[in-house]
Design brief:
Helix content: 55-70%
Distance between the termini: 51 Å
Strand content: under 5%
Number of domains: 1
Largest sheet: none
Shape: flat
Length: about 100
């Protein structure tokens, strides 16, 4: 999607880009509203719904690319093997 955004900005389709962005933010807000109403939650959380479209997905993409490059370059991939706190305590007791 990031490539499509850049393409639209370079070709002058800013209005089309804003229309698509508005549509996705509206859909995400409606889904979040439904989820909050089903769980009898606090509707003030709706103000965070647009962050799933703008910001959070890009953050996940960055983490995904970083992980893929780390694996491809055979760097330290200790993040792929979680160590649980309870497991660490058990190992420290045995030493």
């Amino acid at each position: 999607m990031f490539g499509a955004i850049l393409w639209m900005l370079f070709t002058g389709s800013v209005l089309k880009l804003m229309g698509i962005l508005t549509l996705f933010v509206l859909i995400q807000t409606l889904f979040c509203t439904l989820a909050i109403l089903i769980e009898d939650g606090d509707l003030s959380l709706l103000k965070y719904a647009p962050l799933t479209i703008i910001g959070f997905k890009q953050f996940l993409d960055v983490i995904l690319f970083k992980g893929a490059f780390d694996v491809l370059r055979n760097q330290n991939v200790s993040w792929t093997h979680p160590t649980r706190i309870r497991h660490q305590e058990d190992q420290n007791i045995g030493e």
